[in-house]
Write a structure and sequence with these properties.
The complex is a heterodimer of chains A (about 350) and B (about 160).
Chain A (H helix, E strand, L loop, with lengths): L2 H18 L6 H17 L2 E11 L2 E12 L2 E6 L2 E6 L2 E6 L2 E7 L14 E10 L2 E10 L4 E9 L5 E7 L5 E13 L14 E4 L3 E2 L12 E2 L3 E8 L5 E6 L4 E8 L1 E2 L9 E5 L2 E8 L2 E8 L2 E7 L3 H14 L5 H11 L6
Parallel strand pairs in A: 6-12
Antiparallel strand pairs in A: 1-2, 1-11, 2-3, 3-4, 4-5, 5-6, 7-8, 8-9, 9-10, 10-11, 13-15, 14-15, 15-16, 16-17, 17-22, 19-20, 20-21, 21-22
Chain B lengths: L9 H9 L4 H13 L1 H19 L9 H8 L3 H5 L10 H7 L4 H20 L5 E2 L3 H15 L2 H5 L11
Helix pairs in contact in B: 2-3
The chains are: A alpha+beta (about 350), B mainly alpha (about 160).
Chain lengths: ~350, ~160
Amino acid sequence: MSRVARVVLAAVLAAVVGVLVLPGARADDAESVLDRARNATVREDFSGLVQIEWLADGEWQTARVPVTGTGGTVQVGEGVRKAEGRGNERWIAGVSGWQAGWDEAVTGNVPSPSKHWDLALTKGTEIAGRPTLVVTATDPRTDEARLKVYCDRDTGVMLRREVLDAKGRVVRAVGFVEVKKLGGTRDAAPADPKAKKSKDSTPDRVASVPDGFDAPATVADRYVLAGRYLRPDGIVQLYYTDGLFGVSVFQQRGDLDTSGLPRGSEGVAVGDARGRGYEVAGGTVLVWDHEAMTRTVVSDATIADLRAFAAAFDDRTEHHGGIVEDITDFVLAPFRWN
Amino acid sequence: MNREPTMPGADVLSAYLDGECTDAERVLVEEQLASSEELRDELAEARAARDAVRALPLRDAPPEFWARMLAADPEPEAVLVPAAAAAPVDLAERRARRSPSRWLAAAAGAAAAAVIAVVVLVPQPQSATPPVGAFTAAHAVRSSLQDDAVSSLAPLAVSAGFRR
């Protein structure tokens, strides 16, 4: 092969590789794409249709939602079932009108996505007719991809998020199926729904949780506590994140009474306890009780990951009262109701 | 010849605490208390035990309790004899009739009262039914502040998927 031919071949190979794996793509690049995507819907105007897909009882469920972004305000849904976000405020509309869902900046120590995940940036498939870059997060413990985030190549807006199980199969996704507008001239923001507020369900950020509740700083050596909140109904909400997956933990005093739970759950083991699990549009939900406290965790992580989180949370919150508590338990055990 | 002073028995000490001594017994007890540290300790222990029992919380009997008691009593009239109709009681005789194991009975009674108090005071376990739909919405809201707002908030605009 002549020298010229070798140069041409090398150039072709480089071009092919460059198409498959972005030139110079590193974890830093992948992380910056994720970071950019988090705020892109505030920077860019857009409108379209988003589809939520989730696997429940082995069958795919889907739901479609119209979405718009105007002047930094994100709106999802329509009619009496919609939500709106602007800056640090969140509003939810229902049949009784708007209610405030959040009204303050979030603070806290959030790990970077690359702390627990191997990130790779590649060219992605088109989503709703838009060329994309895809960030793949691989669990370094198993070498399996667990999350794919497709971002619009031009604006950085996240167009699709896929959650994969431990075998690399997609089990949940949310993404655009239709893009009517993306980028371009910005429009004026819609009217503030605050004036139409009929109810306030905003939780209070608290420095510490009330006696009897638990809030470990880390769970399973990877999830970091990013917020503690006291809801108006007295229930404690904690928010954990490993940089890519957020998990909310809700704690209520008392043993779990399953009689009032919605149907459609399946029995699941949480450590030594038995609980109930749901796969719904809003994510995976686990409910169980531990030491006279009912706990609920919600996340878009897989149910296996959420079970591991829940068991680790229980482990971190075991109460060892020593010999006095042991004696008290022994004496009082016959008088307990269950 | 020195005569060893007679130490009052447990029943006399108990009566002294309860104000049921005769005058002579009360004088004897107080003389002995003045000279005997051992007796003072014994009296202090007896007083502490009595106070502990009295300090236990009083509970009202359930409304049907007395009706059940009367129905179960084979001689209800014995309960209903008016106090004024009863014969005068000789304190020394009454004390003499007390069982020699009075302290044992008192201790058993105190233990039983303590157990009852514990059972009454132990709070009945609460139960909780999580509003999972509201929790899912709350998670979506919180998540949207840390992650992409569109994908986080979109589930709020659809039926959550829970079945009632």
